[in-house]
Amino acid sequence: MIGLSTVADVRAAEDVLLARTPEGALMQRAATGLATVCLRLLGRAHGTRVTALVGGGNNGGDALFAGAHLAARGARVTAVLLDPGRAHPAGLAALRRAGGRVTGPGDPDGLDRADLVLDGIAGIGGRGGLRPEAARLAERAATGPGIPVAVDVPSGVDADTGAVEGTAFPAVHTVTFGAVKPGLVVGEGRGYAGTVHLVDIGLGPHLARPRAYQLTDDDVAAHLEPPGDGDDKYSRGVVGIVAGSATYPGAAVLCTGAALRTRAGLVRYAGTAADGVRASWPEAIVTDARPGDAGRVQAWVVGPGTGTDDDARSVLAEVLATDLPVVVDADALTMAAREPDLVRRRSAPTVLTPHDREFARFGAEVGADRIGSARRLAADLGAVVLLKGNATVVADPDGTAFVNATGTTDLATAGTGDVLSGILGALLATGTPPAETAAAAAHLHGRAGQAAGESGPLIAGDLVRRLSPTVGRVRGLGLRDSGA
Ligand SMILES: NC(=O)C1=CN([C@@H]2O[C@H](COP(=O)(O)OP(=O)(O)OC[C@H]3O[C@@H](n4cnc5c(N)ncnc54)[C@H](OP(=O)(O)O)[C@@H]3O)[C@@H](O)[C@H]2O)[C@@H](O)CC1
Ligand SMILES: [K+]
């Protein structure tokens, strides 16, 4: 798992480390790591042009020292000082010694010819959207030819939440120090950060335990282990699915297919789309009876395409009254938002899977702080909340959060949510902890989306078709990563 550390946690760890290291040592580690990534991106230093946008804090210091490294290797480096009286003195001296040029914000011509632009305007000390002068430079950098590289955090992005008020530096690469900050991988910030490179400056042992994480393929592989010798089709958990309707069986077919393709244990379907599901998936055990008469299951998925009429409401109440894990999706979310106590009074795990509009039905808009919003709803309902988005967020009622790393915009198409709930139900039936399981489902869904998107625009059925090879691939990567 990759821990996502807040600014407060990074500052606290820095304070400990600063007291134990010679003055300036941490900044040297940061700047050397930054220069190394820049050299890799440029391919060579000699003859290249680098422009560094330099604010009045330590973030600007990093940019100046990295600029000095690049200048010493033959790059033509220009530092544009936003606040000339406050630029990091030692960094400025180092850049000058290495032959770098220094100008003020009124002379940013270098941006139009740069091969690489370093954004050292503000890092974790930044507050709010960029001020007008900085915003103008960031916008000019965005339209220029240079590779935009953010130092620690793209200036204008809130490092904790990913919120952007107004303008931020649109990086293609972000070189971040000590720990990945949540704002680089979630919400609007994710789009401004681009590819994130983590430079180890020795903070690790001093960092508080993170409260947010990204899963890796290795972590997800642990949720996808093949059956062992002693397993039969019942022993590893059976998932029950309540989805679709006689008129619209599509959601039921997608959800059931996704569950089957994720874990080929037993999948039961109970609902009015029984004929459609039977025709598509002879492998599933299908009934048009009520969930209670469908046979034993270890987890339920309820809601995709069920509608919200009285029958649907009574089936939802029946499923939520069980002591089994339940995935509440789509139409079931609309009904649960009207009667949140149906969820609150449960003691077994519940996972809600809203997109932004469904989330708002529970009483508050998502807003710019997606992790915070998901945490608040999870705590209020005592349920895991999987908030869908380009970077899907999962929040546990205890505050632990996960941010998905595998999302792709290709997934923004009809029916992909039904596939996610089928994957999630299949994994939840094995009895693993619900928040991490939901994060694993989002990760696998994203990987299937990436695979399906490679051959052109995807439809939800493509995801189901790509799931088995994707499970195999993630399992294989996990085995490789664990050295097995
Ligand atoms: N501690 C260490 O040893 C290490 C720290 N490291 C590095 O230090 C960084 C933290 O440095 P920091 O605390 O000096 O704050 P920093 O991010 O430079 O921001 C303050 C500056 O931004 C400006 N500014 C703010 N908002 C703005 C806006 N909206 N628009 C425009 N400008 C804005 C603000 O202006 P002011 O408000 O003061 O006028 C001030 O000039 C951290 O991210 C990492 O890169 C690494 O080297 C590792 C070792
Ligand atoms: K920055």
Automatic annotation (TrEMBL):
<feature type="domain" description="YjeF N-terminal">
    <location>
        <begin position="5"/>
        <end position="209"/>
    </location>
</feature>
<feature type="binding site">
    <location>
        <position position="355"/>
    </location>
    <ligand>
        <name>(6S)-NADPHX</name>
    </ligand>
</feature>
<keyword id="KW-0808">Transferase</keyword>
<feature type="binding site">
    <location>
        <position position="59"/>
    </location>
    <ligand>
        <name>K(+)</name>
    </ligand>
</feature>
<dbReference type="GO" id="GO:0052855">
    <property type="term" value="F:ADP-dependent NAD(P)H-hydrate dehydratase activity"/>
</dbReference>
<keyword id="KW-0456">Lyase</keyword>
<dbReference type="InterPro" id="IPR036652">
    <property type="entry name" value="YjeF_N_dom_sf"/>
</dbReference>
<keyword id="KW-0630">Potassium</keyword>
<feature type="binding site">
    <location>
        <position position="155"/>
    </location>
    <ligand>
        <name>K(+)</name>
    </ligand>
</feature>
<dbReference type="GO" id="GO:0016301">
    <property type="term" value="F:kinase activity"/>
</dbReference>
<keyword id="KW-0413">Isomerase</keyword>
<dbReference type="Pfam" id="PF01256">
    <property type="entry name" value="Carb_kinase"/>
</dbReference>
<keyword id="KW-0521">NADP</keyword>
<comment type="function">
    <text>Catalyzes the epimerization of the S- and R-forms of NAD(P)HX, a damaged form of NAD(P)H that is a result of enzymatic or heat-dependent hydration. This is a prerequisite for the S-specific NAD(P)H-hydrate dehydratase to allow the repair of both epimers of NAD(P)HX.</text>
</comment>
<keyword id="KW-0479">Metal-binding</keyword>
<dbReference type="Pfam" id="PF03853">
    <property type="entry name" value="YjeF_N"/>
</dbReference>
<dbReference type="GO" id="GO:0046872">
    <property type="term" value="F:metal ion binding"/>
</dbReference>
<keyword id="KW-0511">Multifunctional enzyme</keyword>
<comment type="similarity">
    <text>Belongs to the NnrD/CARKD family.</text>
</comment>
<dbReference type="GO" id="GO:0052856">
    <property type="term" value="F:NAD(P)HX epimerase activity"/>
</dbReference>
<protein>
    <recommendedName>
        <fullName>Bifunctional NAD(P)H-hydrate repair enzyme</fullName>
        <ecNumber>4.2.1.136</ecNumber>
        <ecNumber>5.1.99.6</ecNumber>
    </recommendedName>
</protein>
<dbReference type="InterPro" id="IPR004443">
    <property type="entry name" value="YjeF_N_dom"/>
</dbReference>
<dbReference type="GO" id="GO:0110051">
    <property type="term" value="P:metabolite repair"/>
</dbReference>
<dbReference type="GO" id="GO:0005524">
    <property type="term" value="F:ATP binding"/>
</dbReference>
<dbReference type="GO" id="GO:0046496">
    <property type="term" value="P:nicotinamide nucleotide metabolic process"/>
</dbReference>
<feature type="binding site">
    <location>
        <position position="418"/>
    </location>
    <ligand>
        <name>(6S)-NADPHX</name>
    </ligand>
</feature>
<comment type="subunit">
    <text>Homotetramer.</text>
</comment>
<dbReference type="InterPro" id="IPR030677">
    <property type="entry name" value="Nnr"/>
</dbReference>
<feature type="binding site">
    <location>
        <position position="251"/>
    </location>
    <ligand>
        <name>(6S)-NADPHX</name>
    </ligand>
</feature>
<keyword id="KW-0067">ATP-binding</keyword>
<keyword id="KW-0418">Kinase</keyword>
<dbReference type="InterPro" id="IPR017953">
    <property type="entry name" value="Carbohydrate_kinase_pred_CS"/>
</dbReference>
<comment type="similarity">
    <text>In the C-terminal section; belongs to the NnrD/CARKD family.</text>
</comment>
<keyword id="KW-0520">NAD</keyword>
<feature type="binding site">
    <location>
        <position position="152"/>
    </location>
    <ligand>
        <name>(6S)-NADPHX</name>
    </ligand>
</feature>
<dbReference type="InterPro" id="IPR029056">
    <property type="entry name" value="Ribokinase-like"/>
</dbReference>
<keyword id="KW-0547">Nucleotide-binding</keyword>
<comment type="function">
    <text>Bifunctional enzyme that catalyzes the epimerization of the S- and R-forms of NAD(P)HX and the dehydration of the S-form of NAD(P)HX at the expense of ADP, which is converted to AMP. This allows the repair of both epimers of NAD(P)HX, a damaged form of NAD(P)H that is a result of enzymatic or heat-dependent hydration.</text>
</comment>
<dbReference type="InterPro" id="IPR000631">
    <property type="entry name" value="CARKD"/>
</dbReference>
<feature type="binding site">
    <location>
        <begin position="123"/>
        <end position="129"/>
    </location>
    <ligand>
        <name>(6S)-NADPHX</name>
    </ligand>
</feature>
<feature type="binding site">
    <location>
        <position position="305"/>
    </location>
    <ligand>
        <name>(6S)-NADPHX</name>
    </ligand>
</feature>
<feature type="binding site">
    <location>
        <begin position="388"/>
        <end position="392"/>
    </location>
    <ligand>
        <name>AMP</name>
    </ligand>
</feature>
